[in-house]
Write a structure and sequence with these properties.
Elements (H helix, E strand, L loop, with lengths): L8 E5 L7 H10 L4 E7 L18 E6 L3 E6 L3 H12 L6 E8 L6 H4 L1 H11 L3 E7 L9 H16 L6 E7 L9 E4 L5 E11 L5 E11 L8 H6 L2 E8 L8 H9 L1
Length: 260
């Protein structure tokens, strides 16, 4: 069923904090689609995945309110924000959950670690059509203008028909000018992993600490149907993500092994 703009309620969050340029750019686009309830982390919560705040109070503060938008700050994680908003802050179930725009891509296995995609998955668990948007640029001063055109295209698609229950979208936008983006590519998640590297350092007191860095290892760099290939070749990648993590193809084999 198509929902008209004036009746549409959109819940928005991110994992880069209240003042992130990506959030500002996303709001500029999403204001065209309906009424917004925005709940942002008070500071960066990147890499928090589906983490929840369970050992300390969760605090939410209303920062701004107009007829078309309410803005909250949340002390917890992006997943916390979606949960508290759906259960306490919105007058009805939102029509969409939209997260981002993340500073840095969330392609391949990064979807597992991403706070941005955790928020989209959380919305999906509530049965809400949900999307996470990311730009392949980690800079705080990244140019998000080229992303806006493709965010509009994706959201216009959702105005025509909701996503199936249990599926959300992981959208990654390449770091290039709008004229260099070749289009949208619906694809699959690339197979790969992050090879962690911990830098051993000393603080001013002489105590040892470690700083996590890493390099992404693509297991299939020649495959042309993956999100990593799409982004590297200046396509906007869209991967449909399911909350069902069951390895269905392995169930028959596992049953055979256990029966031996």
């Amino acid at each position: 069923m198509k929902i008209e703009k004036d009746d549409r309620l959109i819940l928005i969050t991110n994992d880069d904090g209240l003042y992130a340029s990506g959030l500002k750019a996303l709001l500029e686009v999403m204001e065209e689609f309906g009424k917004l309830v925005v709940i942002s982390t008070t500071e960066s919560r990147s890499g928090m995945s589906q983490a929840l705040t369970v050992k300390m109070p969760l605090r939410v503060k209303l920062l701004d309110e107009t007829e078309r938008r309410r803005l909250y700050a949340c002390s917890g994680t992006p997943a916390d924000g979606i949960k508290i908003a759906v259960n306490q802050l919105v007058e009805r179930r939102p029509d969409w959950v939209v997260a981002g725009i993340n500073h840095g891509a969330n392609a391949s296995v990064s979807v597992i670690y991403s706070g941005t995609m955790a928020a989209a998955i959380e919305g999906c668990l509530y049965g809400i059509s949900s999307v996470g948007f990311s730009l392949n640029d980690y800079s705080a001063t990244a140019d998000f203008d080229p992303a806006k055109k493709y965010i509009r295209k994706v959201m216009q698609g959702l105005t025509r028909e909701s996503l199936p229950e249990g599926i959300c979208l992981n959208v990654n936008i390449p770091d290039c000018g709008e004229k260099d983006i070749k289009g949208i590519m619906v694809c699959r998640q690339a197979s790969g992993y992050w090879r962690e590297e911990f830098e051993k350092r000393k603080d001013p007191m002489g105590k040892t600490y470690y700083w996590l860095t890493g390099i992404f290892q693509n297991h299939e760099p020649e495959a042309t149907d993956t999100d990593e290939w799409a982004i590297s070749n200046n396509y906007v990648s869209i991967v449909p993500v399911t909350v069902d993590m069951t390895a269905h193809s392995f169930i028959p084999e596992l049953k055979k092994r256990l029966a031996r």
